[in-house]
Design goal:
Largest sheet of chain A: 4 strands, mixed
Shape of chain A: globular
Oligomer: homodimer
Distance between the termini of chain A: 35 Å
Radius of gyration of chain A: 11 Å
């Protein structure tokens, strides 16, 4: 199975959701990307359809926005 | 592992998220509850902290609101 990608920006809502997602689907099934630290991946996240963080992009390309931590504009500052 | 509960109300956003969640965590690990049809469970969902559907309540009681289909007020009509 190909991996999901969990995009986050280190906010408290993000960290909480990250723990939940890893518990639910297993850490080997998800790549965690901190787009606040690794800003080169913001564009990739936006192209995938990520509008806010935290968000999970599934292996088939659907975007699940989980709760609400910050908009992409806030991440970009 | 105890099960997660996926609350939804049959909306297109809900159905799409349901497929994604079942693909990600496996259908044996999640109870799917349609609170539009089974209105007796609306109160249970609200007590768990569900503010909108679709939402996933994890085994440890955290609520993950996934995308946005409808508010609980809309579900209650």
């Amino acid at each position: 199975m190909s991996k999901s990608i969990f995009y986050h920006a280190g906010c408290p809502v993000c960290v909480s959701a990250e723990h939940d997602i890893i518990n639910l689907i297993g850490k080997d099934n998800v790549d965690v990307v901190h787009i606040g630290d690794d800003r080169s991946r913001i564009e990739e996240a936006e192209k995938a359809g990520v509008k806010s963080v935290p968000a999970l992009v599934t292996p088939n390309g659907n975007v699940l926005h989980i709760n609400f931590g910050a908009s992409m504009d806030e991440v970009k500052g």
